[in-house]
Amino acid sequence: MEDRVAIFIDGSNLYHALRSNLRRYDLNFANFASALCGERRLFRVYYYNVLQEPGQRVEGQREQQDFLNALRETPYLEVRLGSTKLAQGIPVEKGIDVMIATDLLLFAWNNLYDVAVLVSGDSDFAYALQAVKNMGKHVEVAYFESNVSKDLLDVADVRHLLDRNSFKGLWISKHPPRRKRIGAAAKGAHNKGDQ
């Protein structure tokens, strides 16, 4: 019986890692999920992020909605959205880490997957991944070297180092977009808990 794979993407963490490491963010999520899954059977991809604050930038909100609508058209991908709160005048995402950790644990408990692939470098997920392992599941972490916590890597059964070569053929366009259209929409708010 082939392993069922569930992929959990920390959207803000991935966006910032792509932007700082590769200077682009126009990722084809269906191809990315397929690359992480390999020959195994994909159960589902979960993408977590926050909605931009109402009234901030009307154009940014429209771009984010276009980005989220495109994600929703990706087969077997579900979008999960948290909220933001202002911290010293800066919007900070709230609830995303709890949503990811809850889904990791709940879906493992309900035996919906055999392998969890977490796309994040945030150390906040280390304990949740350990709990998933304790339930008999395998855990993998996809990360950029410059954006990962040692605690997270120590828990992972398999590590997927993401670099320029990892993304060949996984972009929406041949060349990086000239405008920050998709990037502004994808990034969400700042995540105080990254790493």
Question: Can you characterise this structure?
Answer:
The protein has a 7-stranded mixed sheet, with helices on both faces. The chain has a single domain (4-187), classed as 5'-nuclease (Rossmann fold), CATH 3.40.50.1010. It is α/β, with parallel strands linked by helices. It contains 7 helices and 7 strands; from the N terminus they run E-H-H-E-H-E-E-H-E-H-E-H-E-H.
Topology:
Blueprint: E1 4-10, H1 11-22, H2 29-37, E2 41-50, H3 58-72, E3 77-87, E4 90-94, H4 96-109, E5 115-119, H5 126-134, E6 138-144, H6 150-155, E7 158-162, H7 181-187
Parallel strand pairs: 1-2, 1-5, 2-3, 5-6, 6-7
Antiparallel strand pairs: 3-4
Helix pairs in contact: 3-7, 4-5
CATH architecture, by name, is 3-Layer(aba) Sandwich
Number of helices: 7
Helix amount: 25-40%
Residue-averaged pLDDT:
84
Q: Label the overall shape.
A: globular
Question: What is this entry, summarized?
Answer:
This protein is 37% helix and 26% strand.
Q: What key phrases describe this protein's structure?
A:
7 strands, 7-stranded mixed beta sheet, 26% strand, 7 helices, Rossmann fold, single chain, alpha/beta, 37% helix, 195 residues
